[in-house]
Predict the structure.
Amino acid sequence: MFKNIAYDGGRNISRHRILEELKKRDLSQRQFSDLLLDYDVNISKNAISKIINGERAINDIEVKAIAECLGISTDELLSI
């Protein structure tokens, strides 16, 4: 059976970039979760943690909102 797994074994390829951007902006996972609400996306702090740990995939709506919230393009977010 085929499994959708990233090159590093995680469930998304954006996790390292998200963590990098959060550190750069000195944002906690909770603060990031709260900011995403302004983009009409509800991702809990626990879900953010799972995304960063590679335990949770993100859908296209979330990719777009995360990129906009972090002020980067979706291409930047998805680059490896």
In short: The chain is about 55% helix and 0% strand. The radius of gyration is 12 Å. Residues 15-25 form the longest helix (11 residues). The chain has a mean pLDDT of 92.
